[in-house]
Design goal:
The chain is of the alpha/beta class. The protein is 36% helix and 23% strand. The chain has 2 domains: 230 residues, P-loop containing nucleotide triphosphate hydrolases (Rossmann fold), CATH 3.40.50; 55 residues, no CATH class. It contains 11 helices and 14 strands.
Length: 312
């Protein structure tokens, strides 16, 4: 088994004059090539955690490593191994798309300074055209950033963050403000990059449907990890499958469910819990004519709301 690409041990962060820890003794690992989602309400500690992992904040106690490098002791090596897409765009609007990319790779020390695109090494020019083609920016890459739409800016940020082929790509609310089509296209590009380069994706998001595809989900609240596992594990451990039914003669249905010892809750429809029985078995046992029948399959949002509510 490959060593974890991210290794967090007993991480604590307490801000000056604070009475509680923003991050309170959390530990987790992330495997190479994994899609990992960190979820939690505002103020839960997500931003603090990601800031520590990307070396923009120092921990109070505990350790965190990226690709074997300690984020506190070896920040330069950590930065060489990560790409970051911040919640808010961090592009220079006075430059073109290509100039933003060129400035980035020069700062990273990937290439020496050159005043124009045409004087840059061939490897840079080929890589830029390849990524621009993948992200659908071939026509706009040499245009001023101020002419870009929100979706185009996000794509350019992904392109910029991938130029040094990072082993870990941090995505902090990457699709905020994007229309549904742009969100879908952006995720198609990210998953393609992940598959082709075995890139680890570390996501924080408020769009819970984006986290449904994650390999592992970590839910944090009040600085502590309150749930950890695959989306299926998190849903199955907390949320029950149930039937939602109703009848014209509600009194008769209520009496029949009680007689059959079928657990239910009126909400105001009848929520029937399966308790190990199949939906078919329960429906077959009910003689009262039904006017409504729905099967409720738990979603990640259901589980998230229940977890956060319990932990609050």
């Amino acid at each position: 088994m490959a060593a974890p690409i991210i290794n967090v041990n007993n991480l604590v962060k307490r801000y000056k004059n604070a009475t509680t820890n923003a991050v309170d003794d959390i530990s987790f690992t992330v495997a190479p090539g994994e899609f990992f989602a960190l979820l939690g309400p505002n103020g839960a500690g997500k931003t603090t955690t990601i800031s520590i992992l990307t070396t923009t904040l120092t921990p109070t106690t505990g350790t965190a490593e990226i690709a074997g490098f300690n984020v506190d002791k070896n920040p330069g090596q950590v930065r060489q191994n990560v790409g970051i897409i911040f919640q808010r765009p961090s592009l220079d609007l006075n430059l073109t798309g290509e100039e933003n990319i060129r400035f980035h790779v020069i700062l990273y020390g990937l290439y020496p300074f050159r005043p124009t695109f045409s004087t840059m090494p061939r490897s840079y020019r080929e890589q830029l055209h390849q990524l621009a083609d993948v992200l659908g920016l071939q026509q706009e890459i040499f245009q001023p950033i101020k002419t870009f739409s929100g979706g185009m800016k996000r794509k350019l940020e992904i392109m910029r963050s991938l130029m040094h082929q990072p082993r870990v790509l941090f995505l902090d609310e990457p699709t905020v403000g994007l229309d549904p089509a742009s969100r879908r296209n952006l995720w198609q590009y990210i998953r393609r990059v992940q598959a082709e380069n075995i890139t680890t994706v570390f996501l924080t998001t408020h769009y819970l449907e984006e986290a449904e595809a994650a390999d592992t989900i970590c839910i944090i609240n009040q600085g502590q990890i309150v749930s950890f596992g695959t989306p299926a594990q998190i849903k199955n451990e907390l949320i029950e499958y149930y039937l939602l039914v109703d009848a014209a003669d509600r009194a008769q249905l209520r009496t029949e469910l009680q007689r059959l010892d079928i657990p239910f809750l009126e909400t105001p429809q009848f929520r029937i819990y399966l308790n190990g029985r199949s939906a078919h078995q329960i429906i077959k046992s009910i003689d009262t004519p039904l006017t409504m029948l729905q099967t409720h399959v738990p979603t990640l949002e259901d589980a998230y709301l229940e977890i956060v509510g319990e932990a609050a």
